[in-house]
Design a protein that fits this description.
Layout (H helix, E strand, L loop, with lengths): L6 H4 L2 H16 L5 E5 L6 E7 L10 E7 L10 E4 L30 H12 L15 H16 L2 H6 L3 H16 L20 E4 L12 E4 L4 H5 L2 E6 L2 E6 L3 E3 L13
Length: 266
């Protein structure tokens, strides 16, 4: 149970009551792709975690950000900052949105934290410029690369792990939901001699390596692989600054596309 030790001294009674209620609601039934955490010592300071939506450059990415609420919330809007690099927004920079503190004149007290974060996620998937956005955004592949690095980077941050100590459970549940969803769709496949064909740019996680156990659990991006490498059941993957040939069974797809096993031609 969250304890608001210093909140009463910092927030107005309406803000305290409203934010307690919203935290309870959104924690019990989080909107798709959205998770929140509240600083136990200050209810005016929240962290949020956005899961990159499917079929976008951000799929497979996990983006940490902060909400800072004014003392008179919900009668004034929060400030919004992103911490994890995405290629869409500058980091640690206040974002100018119709629902942020840049535009108090357009703020509606009936809007909630869920409203704000849903709007932010939708805006993230556009290329509309604004203060705090990167204009123009980097290439699709660069944003895919940042998505593949985001989770490991978040985990390396002490403040993030304090806000989301259950991140592994959150990620595992999200991947399980995605796997069930993917199982209902007919994927597009590219086959070579009856072996798996991978697409450059797929985000993957490495596991089960013996010689390079230090890479297990790391995420990377599939690179262009020649037919000889593919026929040997291996895939070229860039992990950090290294590119190596990894067996298909040691890769888990975390990005938009996925591997498909095709029957060998008769």
């Amino acid at each position: 149970q969250v304890q608001f030790r210093a909140a009463s001294a910092m927030a107005s009674k309406p803000a305290l009551s409203r934010l307690r209620k919203e935290l309870k609601v959104i924690s019990a039934d989080p909107p798709p792709h959205i998770h929140v955490s509240c600083d136990e010592s200050n209810i005016l300071s929240w962290s949020f975690l956005l899961e990159g939506p499917e079929d976008t450059p951000y799929e497979g990415g996990w983006y940490w950000g902060r909400l800072r609420f004014p003392k008179d919330y919900p009668f004034a809007p929060p400030s919004i900052l992103m911490v994890t690099a995405s290629g869409r927004f500058e980091t640690n920079t206040r974002l100018c949105l119709s629902m942020s503190d840049f535009h108090p004149e357009s703020w509606q007290p009936t809007w909630s934290v869920a409203t704000v974060l849903k709007g932010l996620l939708s805006f993230m998937c556009e290329d509309t410029p604004t203060t705090g956005a990167i204009d123009p955004p980097p290439s699709f592949m660069e944003r895919r690369r940042l998505a593949s690095l985001s989770l490991d980077w978040n985990r390396s941050q002490t403040e993030f792990m304090k806000a989301f100590p259950e991140v592994d459970r959150i990620v595992a549940e999200a991947r399980e939901r995605r796997a069930k969803h993917d199982g209902t769709e007919a994927p597009a496949s590219h086959c070579f001699g009856g072996v798996v064909r991978w697409e450059a740019g797929q985000a993957v996680r490495v596991s089960g390596l013996r010689q390079r156990a230090d890479l297990n659990g790391r995420e990377g991006l599939v690179q262009e692989s020649d037919d000889k490498t593919l026929a040997a059941g291996r895939v070229c993957v860039r992990v950090g600054e290294e590119t190596l040939a990894v067996r298909s069974e040691n890769l888990e797809v975390t990005g938009t596309d996925r591997e498909v096993t095709c029957p060998a031609p008769e």
